């Protein structure tokens, strides 16, 4: 049967309970805080907790009661707010993406959060937090079909493009080494400190630090470092498993459908028309073993993920290429077709650091020998810079530009010519002295820091390439318009 | 496939560029004068105040500021004006700018989302305006061309507007 959402309706009632539960830790903390001030006894605990609990209920209700949504004739309407009333209309054909997310609690109630993205810059453009899961799916299908209520038979099974078994998931977790849990523990202890349950300054006194210093031997040091590394590994695995459990990428009508998550289930469709740039990246060890990560830069992608959406977090190149092909991106050409930077560009990359290193070395001989360490560090930095520049390369394919960058974490961008927004050649003072120039192909939704810029090309070559890229862009646009 | 993607352009896009309106030099100079006066006052106040507690020689800071001000008022406006250039093509606008870091940017009209023609208080008496093209990009999302005669800027805006195509993808 088909639901039409013409009547304004409230969010699922379970929202109230979940919002209340989400407020619970704060309410509990506030209760403890009030008691810690000393003006109330422990006997008043129940009373204070009751007051805060009531306040939580009121807050949840104030948010829930005025919130109405409907999805009638070709548009979603969201009304909310008591004092500051807001009436938002989102036409179906402006909706870029509908993400359905189910947190652990939501799963207990069979509800889901629906996020409607329109490609605008702001987050929270149209969140329905939460509605029944069945409604979420029905709503999504309805918006996809442009508001027609016709029942379209759901394809039995969408073709599977990529999935991760448990073995691979655990393996990928090992590469996700993370020291996040240290921050978590520190934050927890700080919270305890704040409520006066633990006093930091009691723990770390100079006497204690002195005693501890005597206890730490080389062997204990090694054990400790090993322990930290092991914990980092475990944290990495845990985080990866929680995020990527049951990772599944399928080909859906509108794009690539990605499902993943252990506690929080999320389902996102990466619309193929909206993908701008493909990025294949890999860390040093993973690359040796032949593992890569594929993500797409799309319009309206979650900025929390760095503006890109992961399509395959840990995959073989043979698995990545078919996904690229389906999304309309050409495969990277062989290494031999890439052009590196001219030799004198290595000079530009290393010269400033080398000059500083020379200064530090001078200081080491004249002022303080400890500056020698700094000199060595700068020298290493210069060498790393040169090595990185030697890996920096680009290739002009038939349909896309390929840019490689990064020394340890190697990145390969695939920019289809028709996705160009602007083309810019720039030359700084040092670059001009060395007859070098950088070339930037700007795309929509690119991160400010992670963009496929080609640094330090030969100056004349960069100028020619800018014009050639523009001609290729126009050619690709004409072909697309011709096809349409 | 088509010949057009193979065809190597015979000359660089916007090789022969137009320069900005000569009055832009005056606009830049007035801006420089205003900024210099502010900087000189700050420099002078620091010199008679805070800097007297340090061994800095008297008039050192105002002197340096004055030299910089002379450069920015006398030499910089003309250089800056020379560094700018633009060429309006059939389907694109090419802009060159910058003294220290020199840039050449190509903006295809098909990519323009919206266009601004703006006039600041100093530009207004000279009849000078700034044309800004906005694209959906990130680092080159806004491309500005200052120092156009108002009528010309509006003419260009209308011409470009006619060529904007509604294809965001």
Protein architecture, described:
Chain A is α+β, with helices and mostly antiparallel strands. In chain A, 45% of the residues lie in helices and 25% in strands. Chain A is built from 15 helices and 21 strands. A 7-stranded antiparallel β-sheet of chain A has the order 7-6-5-11-10-9-8. Chain A has a 7-stranded antiparallel β-sheet with strand order 14-13-12-18-17-16-15. In chain A, β16 (393-396) and β17 (400-405) form a beta hairpin. The radius of gyration of chain A is 28 Å and the shape is globular. With 169 residues, chain B is α+β, with helices and mostly antiparallel strands. In chain B, 37% of the residues lie in helices and 24% in strands. Chain B has a 3-stranded antiparallel β-sheet with strand order 1-2-3. A 3-stranded antiparallel β-sheet of chain B has the order 4-5-6. In chain B, α1 (23-48) packs antiparallel against α2. In chain B, 25% of the residues are buried. The model of chain B is unreliable at 1-11 (pLDDT under 50).
């Amino acid at each position: 049967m088909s639901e039409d959402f013409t009547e304004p309706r409230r969010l699922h009632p379970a929202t109230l309970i979940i919002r209340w539960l989400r407020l619970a830790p704060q309410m509990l903390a506030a209760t403890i805080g009030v008691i810690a001030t000393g003006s109330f006894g422990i006997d008043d605990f129940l009373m204070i907790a009751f007051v805060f609990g009531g306040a939580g209920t009121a807050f949840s209700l104030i948010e829930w009661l005025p919130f109405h949504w409907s999805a009638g004739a070709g548009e979603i309407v969201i009304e909310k707010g008591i004092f500051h009333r807001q009436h938002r209309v989102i036409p179906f054909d402006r909706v870029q993406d509908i993400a359905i997310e189910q947190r652990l609690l939501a799963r207990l109630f069979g509800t889901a959060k629906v996020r409607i993205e329109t490609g605008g810059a702001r987050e929270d453009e149209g969140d329905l937090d939460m509605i029944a899961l069945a409604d979420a799916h029905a709503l999504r299908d309805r918006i996809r079909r442009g508001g027609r209520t016709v029942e379209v038979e759901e394809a039995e099974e969408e073709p599977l493009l990529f999935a991760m078994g448990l073995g691979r998931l655990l393996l990928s977790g090992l590469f996700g080494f993370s020291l996040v849990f240290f921050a978590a523990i520190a934050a927890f202890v700080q919270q305890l400190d704040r409520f006066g349950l633990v006093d930091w300054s009691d723990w770390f006194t100079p006497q204690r630090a002195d005693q501890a210093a005597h206890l730490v031997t080389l062997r204990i040091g090694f054990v400790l470092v090993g322990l930290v590394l092991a914990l980092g590994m475990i944290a990495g695995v845990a985080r990866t498993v929680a995020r990527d459990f049951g990772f599944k990428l399928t080909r859906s009508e509108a794009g690539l459908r990605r499902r993943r998550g252990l506690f929080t289930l999320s389902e996102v469709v990466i619309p193929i028309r909206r993908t701008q740039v493909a990025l294949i990246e890999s860390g040093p060890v993973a690359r040796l073993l032949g593992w890569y990560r594929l993500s797409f830069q799309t319009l309206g992608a979650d900025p929390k993920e760095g503006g890109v959406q992961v399509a395959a977090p840990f995959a073989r190149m043979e698995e990545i290429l078919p996904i690229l092909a389906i999304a309309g991106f050409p495969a990277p050409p062989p290494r031999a077709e890439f052009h590196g930077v001219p030799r004198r560009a290595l000079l530009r990359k290393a010269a400033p650091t080398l000059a500083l290193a020379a200064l530090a070395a001078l200081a080491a001989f004249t002022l303080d020998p400890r500056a020698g360490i700094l000199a060595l560090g700068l020298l290493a930095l210069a060498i790393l810079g040169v090595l990185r520049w030697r890996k920096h390369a680009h290739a002009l394919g038939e349909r896309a530009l390929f840019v490689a960058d990064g020394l340890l974490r190697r990145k390969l961008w695939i920019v289809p010519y028709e996705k160009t927004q602007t083309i810019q050649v720039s030359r700084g003072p040092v670059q001009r002295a060395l007859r070098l120039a950088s070339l930037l192909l700007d795309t929509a939704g690119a991160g400010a820091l992670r963009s496929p810029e080609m640094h330090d090309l030969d100056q004349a070559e960069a100028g020619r390439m800018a014009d050639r890229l523009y001609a290729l862009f126009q050619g690709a646009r004409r072909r697309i318009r011709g096809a349409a | 496939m088509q010949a057009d993607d193979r065809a190597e352009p015979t000359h660089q896009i916007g090789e022969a560029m137009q320069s900005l309106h000569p009055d832009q030099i005056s606009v830049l100079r007035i801006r420089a004068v205003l900024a210099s006066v502010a900087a000189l006052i700050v420099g002078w106040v620091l010199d008679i105040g805070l800097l007297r507690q340090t061994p800095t020689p008297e008039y050192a800071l105002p002197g340096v500021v004055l030299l910089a001000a002379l450069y920015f008022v006398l030499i910089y406006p003309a250089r800056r004006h020379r560094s700018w250039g633009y060429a309006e093509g059939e389907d694109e606008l090419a802009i060159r700018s910058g003294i220290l870091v020199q840039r050449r940017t190509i903006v295809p009209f098909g990519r323009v989302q919206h266009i601004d023609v703006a006039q600041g208080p100093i530009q207004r008496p000279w009849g000078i305006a700034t044309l800004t093209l906005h694209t959906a990009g990130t680092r080159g999302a806004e491309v500005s061309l200052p120092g156009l005669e108002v009528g010309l800027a509006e003419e260009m805006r209308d011409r470009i507007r006619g060529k904007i195509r509604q294809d965001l993808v």
